[in-house]
Amino acid sequence: MSFDSSKLFQTYQSHRDIKQYLDTLLQQHSSKIEVFSRAESYEEREILTVRICHDVREQKRPNRWCILIDAGIHAREWITVSVALFIVRQLIEKDEISAKSFRSFEWIILPLLNPDGYEYSREHNKMWRKTRRPLGPRHRRSCVGVDCNRNFNVAWTIGSARFCSLLYRGERPFSERETKNVRDLFRKLRPACKFYLSLHSYAKAILYPRAYTRTLPRNWQMQHTIAEAGVEAMKKATGVRYRCGSASTVLNRPVGGSSIDYAHDIEKVPVALVMEVASKGFHPPEANIERICEESWIGIGAMVNCLASSFRSVLKGSATLAAPAQPNRPQCSLRSTSSASRGWVRFFVSARKISTRSSLAGSPTYRILSNRPGRSTAGSTMSGRLVAAIRNTPLRSSMPSISVSSWLTTRVPALPSTVSERFGQSESNSSKNMTQGAELRAR
Ligand SMILES: [Zn+2]
Predict the structure, then answer these.
(1) Strand, coil or helix: what is 34?
(2) Do 402 and 250 contact (CB within 8 A), yes or no?
(3) What local confidence, expressed as pLDDT, does residue 207 receive?
(4) How far does the centroid of ligand 1 lie from the alpha carbon of residue 308, in Å?
(5) How many CB atoms lie within 10 A of CB 417?
(6) Whole-number percent of the chain with pLDDT over 90
């Protein structure tokens, strides 16, 4: 029996309906979609995985990058499951997989990561969040379930160790079949997975790592740019205002064992985002499902477009990955507007900006773009000195939302009239304002 997809977004779908819908798609569009299940949940439901690309039967896939999207990691966040199905529908039934920037990816979608929790939430307790595995010794099992988004092995220890907590981290990392399944998928996709998106609701935000600490990943600017592209597109389309920033900043608390930190820090996925879908509560009225899905898809599409158009070097190269965290190092996007002379520069530092002020008028203007200081040149050149000085400045925060920090004065060597240098690991010319090295150029 085939599934009537016209009603798909008029109501919330059960695990069974979802399977039926995917089977129908498989029959009708077998060249573009594959549906499989690599694991079962504790209550033995298939954890369905959808693989979509424009030539799914083609086995050899050079230069094909992966996007991994999951939904329903938290059982009560019903709307995220609908959003994931909407993505599948758009790519397959509306053939958006053929769009230029989408077709370079293989889309791997887990529309329902935690099926047991979701069904329990539908049938018994709408606010259920965790998995459904009974905990504790067999004779006195009073509490059930683990919070999947505390069960990954990054800073896992800071999660709650109480069985009955809503945020219980599990007896050990990957204690749940559901999270193990995600881990195995990541391992299988290595190193092709370039974008991980975990759908949650309903905080109206797009978040990037890290969740467990305020120390940002080295490529945070790139992730911020991609998240912002989604925020802007949705704002333009519907007026909705999402926030964006690192998860620990926006949520204002550290979260251990999260899937985005795992994806980014362990699996080296360059872009790992949480989208907290905007909705009224965890179970918005069914009449709103389609509208929310459409809005979310606009944001997701814009993020993928941004990744595909502005960061191709990240997709292609080994420049995928984050260095280990370096605590207390301010990570800045620097931009100077005027320059130095007689060896002294006074400049203004913020998490986003630096403008140098010259003590003499009429000296050349320099522009500095930097996220990280280069090892070999730090301290020995103008930009090296600036960056070194910034590193030693106690900024109030390294978060991008801080706009003002302090003035600095530092001594620099005499400058040639034209300087163009680059150091550190730079991405490419296409990622203009995201250069990961430092650049100092007379203009
Ligand atoms: Zn959630």
Answers:
(1) strand
(2) no
(3) 97
(4) 27
(5) 6
(6) 61
Residue 435 has pLDDT above 60, yes or no: no
Q: Which CATH architecture has domain 5-314?
A: 3-Layer(aba) Sandwich (3.40)
pLDDT value, residue 60: 61
Q: Which amino acid is at 180?
A: K
Strand residues in 341-394 grouped as ranges (E): 344-349, 354-357, 366-370
Q: Measured between alpha carbons, how far is 397 from 331 in angstroms, rounded to an integer?
A: 9
What is this structure's pTM?
0.73
> What protein residues have CB closer than 5 angstroms to ion ligand 1?
74, 200
Q: What would you measure as the largest C-alpha separation in the chain, in angstroms?
A: 82
Catalytic residue among 106, 276, 295, 427: 276
Beta bridge pairs of residue 6:
none
Q: In one letter, which amino acid is 30?
A: S
Give the span between the Cα atoms of 26 and 7, in whole angstroms.
18
Q: Is the pLDDT of residue 355 over 70?
A: no
Question: 70 in helix, strand or coil?
Answer: strand
- DSSP string of 309-332, one letter each residue: HH-HHHHHSSTT-PPPP-TT----
Give the per-residue pLDDT at 101: 87
> How many whole angstroms from 302 Cα to the centroid of ligand 1?
22
Query: Is 123 a catalytic site residue?
Result: no
The C-alpha atoms of residue 234 and residue 295 are separated, in whole angstroms, by 6
Cα(282)–Cα(127) distance, integer angstroms: 8
> What does the pLDDT look like over 234-245, one tens digit per residue?
999 999 999 999
Residue 142 makes CB contacts below 8 A (sequence gap 6+) with: 136, 163, 164
137 in Cβ contact with 88 (< 8 Å): no
Q: Tens digit of pLDDT for each residue in 71-86? A: 999 999 999 999 999 9
Q: What is the mean pLDDT of residues 125-154?
A: 91
Beta bridge pairs of residue 371: none
126 contacts 76 by C-beta, under 8 angstroms:
yes
How much distance in Å is there from the Cα of 316 to the middle of ligand 1?
31
What burial class does residue 180 get, using C-beta atoms within 10 Å of its C-beta: 0-12 exposed, 13-18 middle, 19+ buried?
Answer: middle
Question: For the ranges 231-245, 384-398, 418-432, which has the lowest average pLDDT?
Answer: 418-432
